[in-house]
Amino acid sequence: MDNRLIAKRGAGDCASFVGEPYSNIRKAIGYIEANKKNFTIKADIGNPPMALLGALRDTLLRNGITQSGTLRMDVEDVPSIERIRYPLFIYYSMKLPDIVKLTNYHSNNMIAEHIFKYLSLQKAKQGNFKDAIEVVKEYWYSKGLDVSKLDIYDGSGLTKDNKFSAEFLNKMLIYMAKTSKHSDTFFNSLPVAGVSGTVRNMLRNTSLSGKAYLKSGSMSGVQCYAGYIVRDSKKYSMVVMVNDFRGNRHKTVQKIEKMILHEINQYEQQ
User: Fold this and answer.
1) Which residues of 217-242 are buried (b: 16+ CB within 10 A; e: fewer)?
2) Could you say which DSSP state residue 230 is in?
3) Among 159, 158, 157, which residue's Cα sits nearest to residue 169?
4) Which of 37, 134, 187, 190 is the most buried (most CB within 10 A)?
């Protein structure tokens, strides 16, 4: 690992790993909070097939099954699809609502990408970004939403080339709440502000703690929230998008919290 991290007071969570596919070298970049005893940063696996082979080998050895030769993977030497294969193990995943909840609660980018590519199987025999983008746009167009200015380049939102307007997201939230047959499933997949998931510290110790169901989204210079606020049996859709902010992320979040509390109180007093 090539460690290029810089400890800085007030930095918050601004660190990440970068590296090339199929390489075991990863570079740690960005900033971490100074004088913090523990700090967790998640990284991708540089060579997933080899990692799987290693895990399989270790599992076999623990169960008394030895193997000869060495582990290798050649990305240029993919065996023919017609070659006879025998399944060693079949794994059944959780049900889709549980997968969506896990994704939203923890902002799991990898699962989001897999779900996104899975959508493309409605149009093609193999999962790919191009068809997945078309499926998403065609779906929301069929629901009456304007997708002409919707730019999608991945399934997790990690690229800044993605462009969604607050208006589009708000209309999507309204559709999910009022029209979709999956309304309850979607609502229950959202973490609760002040209680759970990536928004467990959001709006804590305020009148909206436990009453705002929000999906967060953040990267360098970006802080966004979308979801619902439930008060007195009323459900309000809410979207906040802050782009290219300068300065401390924590202070930015505090300003967003203050704005949300002010706006909901003003609206209810009308």
Assistant:
1) bbeeebbbbbbbbbeeeeebbbbbeb
2) E
3) 157
4) 190
Domain end among 73, 92, 111: 92
Q: Give the model confidence (pLDDT) of 9-66 as tens digits.
A: 876 667 888 888 888 889 999 888 888 888 888 888 888 888 988 999 999 999 999 9
Specify whether 88 is located in the same domain as 100: no
- Boundary-marking domain end, from 45, 61, 92: 92
Shared domain for 266 and 182, answered yes or no, is yes
Output the six-digit token pair for 24.
């075991």
- Smallest CA-to-CA distance from 172 within 197, 155, 193, 147 is with 147
Q: Which residues of the chain have pLDDT under 50?
A: none
Q: Are residues 7 and 59 in the same domain?
A: yes
Which residues span the domain enclosing 102?
93-158
Cα–Cα distances (Å) from 241 to 30, 62, 82, 252, in that order, read 23, 50, 49, 11
